Amino acid sequence: MEDGGKAAGRKPCCVTNRRTIICLIFLCSFVILYGFNMSETSNTWTGLNNKRTTTNMTTSTPPSSEYKSPGPYLVEYPHKYNFIINQPTKCEELKPFLVLVVPVAPQNIEDRKIIRDTWGAREVLSNKNVTLFFLLGLGEINENELLEESKHHKDIIQSDFVDCYKNLTIKTMVMLEWLDTYCHQASYAMKIDSDMFLNVPKLIEMLEHAPKTNYLSGLVEWAASVHRHTTSKWFVPFEIFSRTTFPPYALGLGYVLSLNLPKKLLEASQEVKALYIEDVYLGMCMHHLGLSPTDPLIQGAFHVFPLYYNRCQYSKIIATTLDTHTNRRQLWADFTKPGPYC
Ligand SMILES: *[C@@H]1O[C@H](CO)[C@@H](O)[C@H](O)[C@H]1NC(C)=O
Ligand SMILES: *[C@@H]1O[C@H](CO)[C@@H](O)[C@H](O)[C@H]1NC(C)=O
Ligand SMILES: *[C@@H]1O[C@H](CO)[C@@H](O)[C@H](O)[C@H]1NC(C)=O
């Protein structure tokens, strides 16, 4: 169990490293002998020069001219992705306690509108700033329209990878890069899917009692089985991950993390191969760091199956998936009307 995350990540790295080291030892011996011979026939400086040139030429890896796909179960990460649309100063200005990041497809304008009008609308809660951002990849949308939307709402972040289900892990890692670079002033970040209901005051109430570092919480899967059936949406072959269960991870629909974690998780991602299942992959990186997600301090706070709307019950939870037919604006109007919840 305790080796779950590393099985997929570390092993291939170690093999490469060992090979490189053996290679280097051979090379060094050769170079030293060669350089020694040279110093006998000419002066020492020439020998040293030759030594340098030889090392340089033989160890340099061949130029990466040909694109190599990571295959169907891994994604192109780490990789240098760029932010095409960015909000680089907002966190610095607002020093938010909580940052909400909603991964959404570029063309999904409707969900962004609804979220801005409902749970994303509140910017200050119990004297704490809350900031909302939407994270997009590349997709079917008029870039000018998107720039207009960004100029108006100042909540769009867009990176230059192809936005699709298979690439969600890239999105999550790019989110961590963004948080680490532009938002380390914040205390916590919540990644939440665009079709969810989020009770921000309840989330803040929980975070006020949560650990300040190495904290990741949500709906935790403590020992999820690896899907070995090729028809499964989450199929992972044995060669990619050999253990029967994944390390603990928080379900991707919504999880919250302390802002000291993005840097650590990014470091771990250098050594753990990027599996296409984004929430599992974060669990693997946490495991690699010797860390674990934790159950929410409020029991039953996260719901993966749509919880039927009930004003009293919704006031006690943090997040739930919503039935696709739910009128979210209507729900919000009812939820936020004056008067006691229960
Ligand atoms: C060889 O080393 C020099 C100096 O360190 C560097 O500028 C050059 O790019 C290297 N060449 C190769 C092929 O790696
Ligand atoms: C919240 O943001 C405002 C700017 O809108 C800033 O002046 C204030 O200091 C922030 N509050 C906290 C607690 O950082
Ligand atoms: C994921 O994004 C990368 C980078 O943009 C791209 O090369 C790759 O084709 C994408 N994957 C899919 C399945 O579209």
Automatic annotation (TrEMBL):
InterPro entries found in the cross-reference section: Glyco_trans_31
Signal peptide: none
Major subcellular site: Golgi
Record pathway: Protein modification; protein glycosylation
GO cellular component: Golgi membrane
Pfam families: Galactosyl_T (PF01762)
The keyword Transmembrane appears for this protein: yes
Annotated membrane topology: Single-pass type II membrane protein
EC number: 2.4.1.-
Superkingdom, natural source: Eukaryota
Keywords from the UniProt entry: Glycoprotein, Glycosyltransferase, Golgi apparatus, Lipid metabolism, Membrane, Signal-anchor, Transferase, Transmembrane, Transmembrane helix
Spans through the membrane: 20-36
GO biological process: lipid metabolic process; protein O-linked glycosylation
Subcellular location: Golgi apparatus membrane
GO molecular-function term, one example from the UniProt record: N-acetyl-beta-D-glucosaminide beta-(1,3)-galactosyltransferase activity
PANTHER family membership: BETA-1,3-N-ACETYLGLUCOSAMINYLTRANSFERASE, HEXOSYLTRANSFERASE
The family this protein is said to belong to: Belongs to the glycosyltransferase 31 family.
Protein name: Hexosyltransferase
